[in-house]
């Protein structure tokens, strides 16, 4: 029985008492005893009903007290769990204003609860992500009419007070009243900065391993191609040396001096070819192992070029007309002599190799603005346009080289040597017209004398 029922029952009793009073005024004396008896009966029934109502109210009060105690205990348990959650736990209104925060949230944001409550959660979001955060918050509020929208998850960069920014994994769920209306949001935040750093390190390690494996495969393929190409390139000059040596051994007493000189020159040319191959392989190996060094020293450019041309002319045996020119503001430059020899000898050797006998090969050196500019020009077979972008790759040979010997290493070595000087190389070519290479090398300030 509730209080409204009790009040109604008391009102009915009053009406019955009033009715008995009016009846008593109308009774005759001889009927008084009978009437009084009826009155006592009515009063007794009323008292019984009052007793029942009182007991009912006592029971309800006891149940209400128990319910209140249970609610208090549940509230305490909720508060204990709220505080003991290891992750930051926040309760906000639908606009994101903080209403409750546990100790983990205070520690994460480095601010006490008194200053945290009533503040928008967005003030701790990094400025560059603030617009995106508010858009997500608005999206949550716009979905308030959807009663069963699931927990939303995303990552956000937060800036705790007086601390470096952190990366937080964020989960947010709806708080609804009995009518199903959105009245708040529950936020669970976890600092994942360290795991992100570990993940980045792991990705870096995986990428480094992938690159290392790719480099190893590339190196393995390079070795295989090197062995195949080198064995082929060495075989021809060695065969020439062997055959010329045998012929000289058995028939030189029958031959004229001129014929003997032909075979001796063949041996010399083959030896020079093998020497060049060995030098190329040595440079390639030094580059692959990181041992190719840059050691600039003062050079007289004109004398250096003259000496190199004398060597190349001897191997060419006057089969081409070689034209050399120099226009140097200063003849002394700080360059690596060993690397410069690799650059010029490979470029000039290609001019002689790929130009028809009797044609003219031009070579020039100039200096300007503390830069040395070397240029070779031939009128040979030229380089197809599709091959020009690949000519500096190891073992690449142009599609029109045919049976002209070569390993495809020379231009790769040229490019490496130019790069070590911090210079650049420019190529211009046309099929059956010729090729011009221009090498620009800055004077080095780093001298190793």
Describe this structure in words.
The chain has 11 helices and 12 strands. The chain is of the alpha+beta class and 449 residues long. The radius of gyration is 51 Å and the shape is rod-shaped. It has a 5-stranded antiparallel β-sheet, sandwiched between helices. A hairpin with a 5-residue loop joins β4 and β5 (182-191). The N and C termini lie far apart (112 Å).
Global shape: rod-shaped
Helical run tally: 11
Biggest sheet overview: 5 strands, antiparallel
Beta-strand content estimate: 15-25%
Order of strands in the sheet with most strands: 2-1-5-4-3
What is the topology?
Blueprint: H1 3-26, H2 32-84, E1 88-92, E2 98-101, H3 103-109, H4 113-116, H5 127-142, E3 152-158, E4 166-176, E5 182-191, H6 193-251, H7 257-288, E6 297-300, H8 301-316, E7 321-328, E8 332-335, H9 337-353, E9 360-368, E10 371-377, H10 385-388, H11 410-420, E11 424-430, E12 434-442
Parallel strand pairs: 7-9
Antiparallel strand pairs: 1-2, 1-5, 3-4, 4-5, 6-8, 9-10, 10-12, 11-12
Helix pairs in contact: 1-2, 6-7, 7-11, 8-9, 9-11
Gist?
The protein is α+β, with helices and mostly antiparallel strands and 449 residues long. The protein has helices at residues 3-26, 32-84, 103-109, 113-116, 127-142, 193-251, 257-288, 301-316, 337-353, 385-388, 410-420, and strands at 88-92, 98-101, 152-158, 166-176, 182-191, 297-300, 321-328, 332-335, 360-368, 371-377, 424-430, 434-442. The strands form three sheets. The protein has a five-stranded antiparallel β-sheet, sandwiched between helices. A five-stranded mixed β-sheet has the order 7-9-10-12-11, covered by helices on one side. A two-stranded antiparallel sheet has the order 6-8.
């Amino acid at each position: 029985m509730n209080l409204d029922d009790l009040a109604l029952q008391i009102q009915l009793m009053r009406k019955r008492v009033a009715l008995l009073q009016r009846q008593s005024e109308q009774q005759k004396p001889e009927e008084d005893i009978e009437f009084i008896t009826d009155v006592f009966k009515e009063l007794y029934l009323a008292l019984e009903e009052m007793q029942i109502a009182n007991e009912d109210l006592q029971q309800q009060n006891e149940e209400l007290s128990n319910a209140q105690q249970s609610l208090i205990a549940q509230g305490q348990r909720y508060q204990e769990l709220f505080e003991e959650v290891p992750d930051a736990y926040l309760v906000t209104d639908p606009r994101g204003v903080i209403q409750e925060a546990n100790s983990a949230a205070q520690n994460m944001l480095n601010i006490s609860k008194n200053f945290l409550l009533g503040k928008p959660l967005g003030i701790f979001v990094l400025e560059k992500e603030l617009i995106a955060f508010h858009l997500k918050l608005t999206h949550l509020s716009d979905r308030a009419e959807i009663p069963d929208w699931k927990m939303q998850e995303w990552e956000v960069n937060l800036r705790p007070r007086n601390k470096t920014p952190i990366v937080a994994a964020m989960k947010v769920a709806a708080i609804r009243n009995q009518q199903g209306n959105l009245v708040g949001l529950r936020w669970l935040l976890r600092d994942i900065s360290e795991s992100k750093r570990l993940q980045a390190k792991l990705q870096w390690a995986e990428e480094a391993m992938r690159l290392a494996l790719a480099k190893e495969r590339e190196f393995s393929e390079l070795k295989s191609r090197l062995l195949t190409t080198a064995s082929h390139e060495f075989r021809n000059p060695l065969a020439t040396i062997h055959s010329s040596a045998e012929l000289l051994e058995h028939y030189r007493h029958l031959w004229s001096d001129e014929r003997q000189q032909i075979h001796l020159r063949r041996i010399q040319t083959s030896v020079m070819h093998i020497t060049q191959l060995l030098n190329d392989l040595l440079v390639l190996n030094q580059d692959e192992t990181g041992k190719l060094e840059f050691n600039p020293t003062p050079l007289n450019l004109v004398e250096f070029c003259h000496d190199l041309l004398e060597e190349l002319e001897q191997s060419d045996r006057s089969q081409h007309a070689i034209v050399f020119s120099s226009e140097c503001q200063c003849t002394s430059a700080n360059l690596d002599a060993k690397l410069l020899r690799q650059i010029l000898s490979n470029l000039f050797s290609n001019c002689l190799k790929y130009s028809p006998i009797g044609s003219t090969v031009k070579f020039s050196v100039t200096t300007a603005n503390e830069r040395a500019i070397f240029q070779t020009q031939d009128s040979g077979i030229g380089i197809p346009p599709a091959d020009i972008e690949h000519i500096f790759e190891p073992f690449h040979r142009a599609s029109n080289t045919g049976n002209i010997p070569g390993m495809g290493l020379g231009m790769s070595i040229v490019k490496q040597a130019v790069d070590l000087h911090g210079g650049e190389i420019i190529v211009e070519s046309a099929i059956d017209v010729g090729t011009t290479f221009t090498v620009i090398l800055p004077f080095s300030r780093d001298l190793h004398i």
